[in-house]
Write a structure and sequence with these properties.
By secondary structure, the chain is of the alpha+beta class. The chain has 4 domains: 79 residues, Uridine Diphospho-n-acetylenolpyruvylglucosamine Reductase, domain 2 (2-Layer Sandwich); 119 residues, 2-Layer Sandwich (Uridine Diphospho-n-acetylenolpyruvylglucosamine Reductase, domain 3); 107 residues, Alpha-Beta Plaits (2-Layer Sandwich), CATH 3.30.70.2190; 74 residues, Alpha-Beta Plaits. The chain is built from 15 helices and 19 strands. Strand 4 and strand 5 form a beta hairpin. Helix 7 crosses helix 9, helix 8 packs across helix 11 and helix 12 runs antiparallel to helix 13. 52% of the residues are buried. Bound molecules: flavin-adenine dinucleotide.
Length: 451
């Protein structure tokens, strides 16, 4: 590897243990390459310098936030540089009049949400990883999360960006104003581009008026069909829930195995639903409970206050840890039309029965975006391969239902082989041509997404 400019020497990492921490994200099976460098950028100049040098030396660059990604998008590449952006973590302003906030890519999502709340405003995107992922990573993956059913995804809140392109050129996209239609929507192009077009160094987000503290209802069911009916009933409600999460029986058993979150262990599914509608949370929560009872819930609990609400949601928040504790697994991220949810769940059951691969079903049921987890035993020959094959089957099922291969985690390196199946060869060709406009030498996150 060509030597870095001396100006970056203090930003690089030499300790092998520290280096290893920056090598992988949360995707299953990600491994560190043999040779790679890490630069922990501290300001815009560092980013410009890295991208100028990388273009000159044709060195691959992996932009990186907090490495919570589940698609392998921020994993180090052989002979490349990991450009970590966590240090660009200032929240520059929160402007109540314009209803916006400006920040670097590095703040943890929860910190931006807290800064907005201090000003009496709300930054809605709420990935389950919001306590440790970064805004830059959220923008690059167009992150979703628990409140999309009412509030949408990260793209719905990004107004403007500052982006550094390969070669070091700095551009601005979008606008701060309430409206603005000047030129092509490059902001929309960069959001969700998974570090393949440019490095995001500043983000301007839209804020909305603060909702009320949410009230939760938790319903359990003796069949997944009944739970699906409940989701459909709630989706059709005039006042949409602010959260609508699904856990199937095996997921509940895994959650209860790490601590007692109050779920009955013998139920087939649970739905957790919230309302944050100002002045109406109790009314909505009781209405949702009644609809879920009508759909076939065997038991429904409604929280009386925000503390009880959090307690009812605690099992959902513990989900990732519970599944990790259960054993090695692939995490799916398929999203189908909500009307196909029952069929998706049934297909998962069929695949599991046919292949012997244990599959738990959980996720953002209100969006039709499930995260089936496919378990395997690394000691058993062929077990991992069977889980991988079942994973591919689920992707195919989702596509056949008019769904997508990834609702929110991104394509990264994990799902790039299926992208042509979803978007078609002509679209892939145009996507590659667009990449060449911003990154003619293909140094940014090469081999990922639409490769
Ligand atoms: C327990 C758990 C729960 C999760 N829950 C959710 C969820 O509910 N919803 C959801 O959407 N995701 C979820 N995720 C996935 C992950 O947290 C998101 O994808 C998140 O947006 C990644 O942010 P990050 O800062 O960790 O980025 P990283 O993982 O470091 O990077 C992700 C991608 O963004 C690119 N990138 C990062 N920063 C920049 C930048 N400044 N400029 C350009 N490109 C950049 C990287 O190259 C990579 O392609 C979850 C993950 C875990 C581990």
């Amino acid at each position: 590897m060509t030597t870095f400019p001396s100006s970056l020497a203090s930003r690089t990492v030499s300790d092998p243990d520290v280096l290893a921490r920056y090598a992988v994200d949360e995707s299953l099976g990600a491994t560190a390459p043999e040779h790679f460098e890490v630069v922990r950028a501290r300001d815009l100049d560092d980013v410009v310098e890295v991208l100028r040098w990388a273009q000159e030396t044709r060195t691959p660059v992996v932009p990186q936030g907090a490495r919570s990604g589940l698609a392998g998008g921020s994993v180090a590449l052989e002979g490349g540089v990991v450009l970590n952006l966590e240090g660009l973590d200032s929240i520059v302003e929160v402007d109540p009049l314009e209803s916006l906030a400006v920040c670097g890519p590095g703040p943890v999502t929860a910190d931006l949400k807290a800064a907005a709340a201090e000003a009496g405003l709300f930054y809605p995107p709420d990935p389950a990883s919001s306590g440790f992922c970064t805004i830059g990573g959220n923008v690059a993956t167009n992150a979703g999360g628990l409140c999309c059913v009412k509030y949408g995804v990260t793209a719905d809140y990004v107004k403007a960006l500052q982006v550094v392109l390969p070669g070091g050129e700095v551009i601005r996209t979008g606008h701060r104003t309430a409206k603005g239609v000047a030129g092509l929507d490059l902001t929309g192009l960069f959001v969700g581009s998974e570090g393949t077009l440019g490095v995001v160094t500043e983000v301007t987000v839209r804020l909305v008026p603060a909702p009320d503290p949410a009230l939760t209802a938790l319903a359990t069911f003796d069949s997944l069909d009944a739970a699906s009916r409940g989701i459909v009933a709630l989706r059709l409600e005039r006042h949409r829930p602010s959260l609508l999460e699904l856990l199937d029986g095996p997921t509940i058993a895994a959650v209860q195995a790490i601590a007692d979150f109050g779920f009955p262990v013998d139920c087939a599914a649970a739905l957790i639903v919230q309302s944050d509608r100002p002045g109406h949370t109790a009314q909505d929560a009781h209405r949702y409970a009644a609809l879920l009872t009508e759909a076939g819930a065997t038991d429904v609990a409604v929280a009386d206050d925000p503390q009880e609400s959090e307690a009812l949601l605690a099992g959902r928040r513990a989900l990732h840890h519970a599944l990790v504790a259960k054993g090695p697994h692939f995490i799916e991220d398929v999203c189908v039309p909500v009307g196909q949810l029952t069929a998706l769940i049934a297909a998962g059951g069929d695949i599991s029965a046919r292949t012997g691969v244990e599959i738990t079903m959980s996720g953002h049921g209100g969006d039709g975006n499930l995260h089936p987890s496919l378990f395997f035993d690394p000691r058993e020959p062929g077990s991992r391969e069977r889980a991988e094959a079942a994973f591919a089957e689920l992707v195919a099922v989702a596509l056949a239902m008019g769904g997508t291969i990834t609702g929110e985690h991104g394509v990264g390196s994990l799902k790039s082989r299926w992208l042509p199946d979803e978007v078609g060869a002509a679209s892939i060709a145009r996507q590659r041509a667009l990449k060449a406009v911003f990154d003619p030498q293909g140094i940014l996150n090469p081999g990922r997404v639409y490769w």
